[in-house]
């Protein structure tokens, strides 16, 4: 800061300066800020240069910074990792920041922002403190076991606290539904026989031509994907190859991939042609646990109502008839699928696993008390450890790299 701005500005005060370098001369008319640690985002001394964004300005500034001994470009996520290591945020908040960086829809953004603000972290810290208090009562009973009824007097409130915390954590686990899936989104596969309008429907949903539309059967040979923002829900729509028996090895591979992706989706839209008598999904899909909606396309060419008992809706992908109703049904499905969604505390499988382990240990504590105070203390100590792992305060080196490597450079 002193080398390029020629002065150290007042802490946390935006200051207008001319950035210059002895070798390069004037660089830019800029604004700089100085944040002495520990009152900074990372807990360390931090300098910020707010410059104009032209490539020449950036190149000159990086060249000037590169000429200063000890300076190097930040690694991916390094500033956030330093903030975590210096106690400025816990691991759940760092995960929330990562989710916020990668949020594609408004619901994802709101969920990530709640996590960044400590939605789960504050709860976990409170639970951890209460378990430590219960553990302290048990430890006192162990240390003063020769004092007659001291152990019994302390054991009851400790067990009551553990039982109450077990119920609270179980309530959180039950209420989540698939809230962590909001990060990844919903996968909807469009499947059916060749030339029933799958690609046309894909293009209508995407509002652009992402799939080839042709009257010739077998045009789509591979799986085509497009990401949509469906009322704030992230949805991946998959257009699959027409499913039929074929001797063409390329089309046959497309059919195989189509069946595999449809079986892995969260919802299948099975398209049938209004001119066709067939409406039932193929046997392999009917046996799958994936929900299947039968949708009759080309309704504008139909001469009468369908008699199919499992028909959900009739549409015309070409003209757009019935598409608003189909979109409304998809939004309703997403609402039910994600459950508590963005308001949920749990956003990652890692968090769910550690909370499940904590709840199981608290449940086991009551049975352990009958075996001896030492067994109860060990279960409570293990529960404290699991919540510490959730917050990133103990035994998490193996997962730090996998989290912070997904951040953008520096952040």
Describe the structure.
By secondary structure, the protein is an alpha/beta fold. It contains 14 helices and 9 strands. The chain has a 6-stranded mixed β-sheet with strand order 5-6-4-7-8-9, with helices on both faces. Strands 1-2-3 form a 3-stranded antiparallel β-sheet.
Spans of at least 5 consecutive residues with low confidence: 210-221, 305-310
* Strand percentage: 5-15%
Oligomer: single chain
* Total number of strands: 9
Sum up the overall morphology in one term: flat
Structural class: alpha/beta
- Strand count, sense and closure of the main sheet? 6 strands, mixed
Please outline the helices and strands.
Blueprint: H1 2-5, E1 15-21, E2 25-35, E3 46-50, H2 55-66, H3 78-85, H4 91-101, H5 106-116, H6 119-143, H7 150-175, E4 186-192, H8 198-206, E5 224-230, E6 233-239, H9 249-264, E7 267-273, H10 283-286, E8 292-297, E9 311-314, H11 323-338, H12 349-371, H13 373-391, H14 397-404
Parallel strand pairs: 4-6, 4-7, 7-8, 8-9
Antiparallel strand pairs: 1-2, 2-3, 5-6
Short description:
The chain is built from 14 helices and nine strands.
Which properties best describe this structure?
14 helices, 411 residues, alpha/beta, 9 strands
């Amino acid at each position: 800061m002193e080398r390029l701005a020629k002065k150290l500005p007042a802490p946390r005060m935006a200051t207008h300066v001319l950035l210059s370098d002895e070798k390069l001369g004037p660089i830019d008319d800029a604004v700089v800020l100085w944040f002495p640690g520990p009152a900074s985002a990372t807990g360390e001394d931090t300098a910020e240069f707010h410059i104009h964004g032209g490539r020449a300005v950036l190149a000159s500034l990086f060249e000037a910074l590169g000429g200063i001994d000890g300076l190097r470009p930040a690694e991916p996520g390094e500033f956030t990792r330093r903030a975590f290591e210096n106690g400025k945020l816990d691991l759940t908040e760092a995960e929330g920041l990562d989710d916020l960086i990668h949020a594609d829809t408004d619901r994802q953004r709101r969920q990530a922002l709640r996590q960044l603000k400590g939605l789960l972290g504050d709860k976990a810290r409170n639970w951890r403190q209460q378990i430590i208090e219960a553990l302290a009562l048990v430890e006192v009973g162990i240390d003063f076991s020769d004092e007659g009824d001291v152990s019994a007097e302390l054991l009851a409130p400790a067990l009551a606290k553990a039982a109450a915390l077990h119920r609270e954590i179980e309530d959180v686990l039950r209420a989540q539904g698939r809230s962590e899936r909001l990060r990844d989104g919903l996968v909807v596969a469009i499947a059916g026989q060749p030339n029933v309008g799958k690609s046309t429907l894909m293009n209508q949903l995407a509002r652009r031509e992402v799939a080839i539309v042709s009257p010739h059967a077998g045009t789509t040979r591979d799986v085509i994907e497009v990401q949509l923002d469906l009322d704030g829900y992230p949805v991946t729509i998959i257009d699959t190859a027409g499913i039929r028996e074929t001797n063409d090895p390329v089309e046959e591979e497309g059919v195989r991939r189509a069946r595999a992706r449809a079986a892995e989706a969260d919802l299948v839209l099975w398209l049938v042609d209004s001119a066709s008598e067939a409406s039932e999904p193929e046997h392999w899909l009917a046996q799958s646990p994936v929900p299947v909606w039968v949708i009759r396309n080309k309704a504008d060419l139909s001469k009468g109502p369908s008699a199919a008992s499992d028909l959900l809706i009739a549409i015309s992908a070409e003209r757009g008839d019935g598409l608003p109703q189909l979109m409304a049904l998809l939004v309703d499905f997403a609402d039910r699928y994600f459950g508590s969604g963005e308001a949920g505390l749990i956003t990652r499988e890692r968090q769910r696993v550690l909370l499940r382990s904590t709840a199981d240990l608290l449940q086991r504590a009551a049975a352990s008390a009958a075996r001896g105070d030492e067994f109860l203390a060990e279960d409570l100590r293990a529960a404290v450890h699991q919540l510490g792992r959730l917050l990133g305060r103990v035994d998490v080196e193996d997962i730090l790299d996998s989290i912070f490597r997904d951040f953008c450079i520096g952040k």
